[in-house]
Amino acid sequence: MNKRVVITGVGAVTPLGNDAFTSWKNIINGVSGIENATLIDTEKVDVSIAGEVKGFEPANYMDKKEARRMGRFSQFAVAASKMAIEDANLLIGKDAIPERVGVWIGSGIGGLGEFEEQYRKFLNKGQRRVSPFTIPMFIPDMASGRVSIELGAKGINNCSVTACASGSNSIGDAFRAIQYANADVIVAGGTEASITEMTIAGFSNMTALSKNSDPKNASRPFDKNRDGFVIAEGCGILILEELEHAMKREAKIYGEIIGYGSTGDAYHITSPAPDGEGAERAMKEAIIDAAISPDQIDYINAHGTSTPYNDLYETNAIKKVFEEHAYQLSVSSTKSMTGHLLGGAGAVEAVFSLLAIRDSILPPTINYETPDEALDLDYVPNTAKEKNLNAVLTNSLGFGGHNASLIFKKFIL
């Protein structure tokens, strides 16, 4: 029999706060974390807004010298992981065997900012001015590597790199590893810090980014006037733990992960498959894996990027999977407040999904002003709503045709 897997700790660094609970408070209050960008030279690009992490001090979570040798995305991962471990009240080496504690943290891009900085040094000042830590600063797996070192976790150490599905795939893959008894505990999630001129230029030139210069209104998922996503940064971390292991140490439990679906579109490098065919299959796989019926899902935290095709195709996929029940459940996009954290998005949204279950509340989709006649579900417009939630599904869809769906439910022994 597969092991049951519960979530005993959460951690996050987001544009809405430098911990999970501040971020969540701002989510349910409908606060936007999107502002005028400070991490880039906005004169070089045609987009001037972003969801930046504010006031983050790496030295609060790690040695200053080591922090300088890390990419920003790895710093976020170390900070969020330490917060999640503390939240779980888990002491590795005492409450868990180090060789049975894993780390699985995804990143879609890794340390692109650090790569750009070192490449400029190489061009302008020559080879000798390039940092010997350049490669470890930007390769995507290094967030997992750094967290493993900082925590003393000696079990499975991995990184799923699936663009904007990286965080969700990492959580799902970690879930499988515990189910199959390959670990007792896994620190799982996703991280990203790629607000750079090159990133914005690339996304902008493919017409993926919003050109709305008003920070608070630019991210508007499911609204008729949506015109693209807003790039953001941050990290979300869950402590996944085998149920008996968690019960033995009397851990608090946020919820249980019961379903995971992962599919490929085999269609296009950036555009989703028509009508969200790949997302539809990912949701169906997750529901089958969870051994529940579609009408048991109460809420979907949508990928909801605020791009014309994603929001339409994801809505159509939801209708195909849930049929009449699609009009009974609620769907919202917290990207309306955080922006799009790319490889970190699915993990942060998993944190929000669990806290929604804990607090019996539906996070809103803000900036929903003009309904789109083709999008006719309950998108929880503008204001959070109270609702008892037993089962929540969250979607992540990435360039390359990567689709991942996770299902969390209220924990019942």
Description:
There is one protein chain. Helix 11 links the parallel strand 9 and strand 10. With 413 residues, the protein is α/β, with parallel strands linked by helices. The two termini are 16 Å apart. It has two domains: 5-248, Peroxisomal Thiolase, Chain A, domain 1 (3-Layer(aba) Sandwich); 261-409, Thiolase/Chalcone synthase (Peroxisomal Thiolase, Chain A, domain 1, 3-Layer(aba) Sandwich). The protein is 33% helix and 18% strand. It has helices spanning 20-28, 64-68, 72-87, 112-125, 134-138, 142-151, 166-179, 197-205, 243-248, 277-290, 308-322, 335-338, 345-359, and strands at residues 5-13, 35-36, 49-50, 101-106, 157-158, 185-192, 234-242, 255-264, 299-301, 330-332, 361-362, 385-386, 391-398, 402-409. The mean pLDDT is 97.
Highlighted features:
single chain, 413 residues, alpha/beta, Peroxisomal Thiolase, Chain A, domain 1, 2 domains, ten-stranded mixed beta sheet, two-stranded antiparallel ribbon, 13 helices, 14 strands, globular
User: Helical content, roughly?
Assistant: 25-40%
Q: What string gives the helices and strands in order?
A: EHEEHHEHHHEHEHEHEHEHEHHEEEE
Query: What CATH architecture label of the largest domain applies?
Result: 3-Layer(aba) Sandwich
Tell me about the largest β-sheet.
10 strands, mixed
In terms of quaternary structure, the protein is single chain
Strand order of the largest sheet: 5-4-6-7-1-8-14-13-9-10
Number of separate helices: 13
What integer value in Å does the Rg equal? 20 Å
- Name of the level-1 CATH class of the largest domain: Alpha Beta
> Which percent range describes the beta-strand content?
15-25%
The termini sit apart by: 16 Å
Low-confidence stretches are none
